[in-house]
Amino acid sequence: MTIFNLGSINIDLIYRVSHFPAPGETLTTRDHERMLGGKGANQSIALARAGGDVRHIGATSAEDEWLRAEMRDAGVDIGGVQDSGLATGHAVVSVSDDGENQILLYPGANHDIDLQAAVAQLDTAGEGDWALLQNETNGADEFVAAARARGMKLAYSAAPFDAAITARLLPETDLLVVNEIEAAALSDMLGAPAKEAGIPHLVVTRGGDGADYDGIAGSFHVPAFSVTPVDTTGAGDCFFGYLLAAMAADRPVEQALAEASAAAAIQVTRPGASAAIPDRGEMNEYLAANQ
Question: What number of H helices and E strands is found in the chain?
Fold first, then answer.
């Protein structure tokens, strides 16, 4: 099955710090890197490295060809990436010594996607293919309506959490993956635990405490692999991409979650977001050695 991802593409500006600054504090960073990022791009690359067939739909400034080249080199079909007159979206990421991160996000071109052209990318989709989106681009409602009209399934990463968008998309969602903070916000919005929303596949990630699944495959907890994190940036995107790739290939949910957990465990032991995502061979070796 093919996954069509209406997803953000960012330039990640990464700064390593001893601690996160307090209000009014000026802090000298230890290092600086510029990398490809964005939840959408990270998830597309994770899907591709997991062996999935993924077509990315989004936008960047035409001057940032290096971003598209990295996605293409990772195995992502970028035929749906548009040129925008706005600056490419970017994120300012601080990573502390304990591997945690704080992020400031500028949307830029991610909110300038031509929806007519984006929806036209779905003309080659077939029934059973997947549509994927996050809350970092414009056009979610139009994209979902077009996907549903074509008989596609919907995978949704409700981040950054927006109650209004999530409320509209939740009834259409087949697979929802949120972290525990987003799950709490979702439960507040619903006035009931998120697992009672009737979502076919709900996964709540809990970092080093693993993930919880509720849906048509039952209810169970998936423990995380024990690793010492270097950088947790993009770990959730790596997890989501591997999970969706396995589900799109019709592997059992339990196996899909195990693969996603193994890939994320590898990813957090490396610096960066998309650059740290392992390929399927690495994931398989790790999973075999640690089951």
Answer: 9, 13
